[in-house]
Amino acid sequence: MTGRLSDEGVTALHGAGGELMGKFLAERVLPLFQLRSAGPIGLDQLDDGAVVDLPPGHLVVTTDNHVVKPFLFPGGDIGRLAVCGTVNDLAVMGARPVALTLGLLLEEGFPFSDLERVLRSAAGVLAELGVPLVAGDTKVMGRGELDRIAINTTGIGVAERVISDAGLRVGDAILVTGTVGDHGMALLAAREGFKLATGLTSDVAPLWPLLAPVLASGGITAMKDPTRGGLAAALNEMARKAGVGIEIHEEAIPLRPEARALSELLGISSLEVACEGRAVLAVVPDRAEAVLSLLRDHPLGRDSQIIGEVIPTYPGRVILDTGIGGRRFLEMPLGDPVPRIC
């Protein structure tokens, strides 16, 4: 075996810790990431860990595994999704992301061209946010032992004031920062066996640039990103944790016509399908319109809407006002109706 890397795809030796893995990292991974340190020891040193110098505030840490299928999808790929999913978990807790780790699980034979695309997407989001990749790991599994690629990410953030998803208070307005269900429906349409030309693209995007000015303005009592289980799961979890009721007005929920049509065709509710670039906010009543205006000033929040309010009745439940004289419970989904979308 020579030290020359394959021109086509990953081999077991690229994850085995030897010379080939070193060349793989030096030639195909590290050059893609502009920022690689948040302290005296970072990714360049390839040590057993990174040292991160943190600004004052509350330390917030989150981790996630990403097994999306297909790993390339309309509007993004697993690399962009992995970074956005993690920094968004920080953002909805009021935390500015300051460092990220990334672990790759690759199937033997995974094409270098696809890997470069995925890593460039991940690096692009980090560059946009000014967040360094400080540590990582690569493992290669045999053919058939893994479905192409999986990514683990851990995010480190700092918050001046931590925002919980359980901070709802009676009277708070409920806002959503854009159309719901786009990510899950776009992936569903792209999967093998669903040859549907919907024009839908994933909403996957980093939320911190949208939420930072809103947090600074005040009035936010709770936040959550509606990923697995979509808007329905996020609202139910928030209501249960806070011990309050939530009433949502169906006609106020922003939905793309394409997502609505696809959900009706397949019998899947857009309210139960994951978003990857949206947030649900609870806002004190006298700040709701000001927060809505701030959200709409940002391109990512131009479709933001006030969709409901926190109520004292039906604690732990979500009521959906259908707008035609009917009201029903919006139940917590038993599970995500579209698996492997994040």
TrEMBL record:
InterPro entries: HypE, PurM-like_C_dom, PurM-like_C_sf, PurM-like_N, PurM-like_N_sf
A single GO BP: protein maturation
Gene3D superfamilies the UniProt entry points to: PurM-like C-terminal domain, PurM-like, N-terminal domain
Pfam family, one: AIRS_C
Domain PurM-like N-terminal, residue spans: 47-159
Record-annotated PurM-like C-terminal domain positions: 169-318
Entry similarity comment: Belongs to the HypE family.
Name this protein carries in UniProt: Carbamoyl phosphate phosphatase, hydrogenase 3 maturation protein
Species: Candidatus Bipolaricaulis anaerobius
Annotated gene: hypE
